[in-house]
Amino acid sequence: MKLKSGILIVLFGAFIFATSEDSESEKNVEELVVETLVKPETCTITSVVGDTLAIHYTGRLLDGKVIDSSLSRDPLVVELGKRTVISGLEQALVGLCEGQKIKVTIPAHLAYGKRGYPPTIPGDSVLEFEVEVVSLTQQTPWQKLVNDIFPLVCLALVPTLLGLVGIYLYNKAKAQPQGRKKSKDKKSKKK
Asked: pTM score, two decimals?
């Protein structure tokens, strides 16, 4: 009996040690790490925010378990700056060339955070992605106008419209209603 309980305690201790090692190594990754695996010889255009990339990717947990891959389907289209992918991956996609392959290690706070993405991705998980840029399309001047200036115009219009509505309501409240004035006139005529 003592031997069995001793073995259980040793196994439990080993389990605790192994899980704490894994979680410590995951907690040590605090910054985004980008490794270039393949870079084309000619790289004249690099991606910037606003550009559109078509990428193939394979995402894994640190233990090697694949969480998602685009290799069996069409490439994923990502417009940088639109937050269509996790922030760590989007940051890693800036400054890349068409044909470039990278490996990205993304800390939990730039991935899915404490909540994770159950059941596939546990909370506080560090992720690794291997990414290949299939195509790179630069932002046109019209897209730049729409993406950069149009939101500012809309932000300026909101206070303007609220101010006009406020002035209208103020003038309406300030004006004396016609119905009350007529009723006072009728009362004075009766006397």
From this structure: 0.63
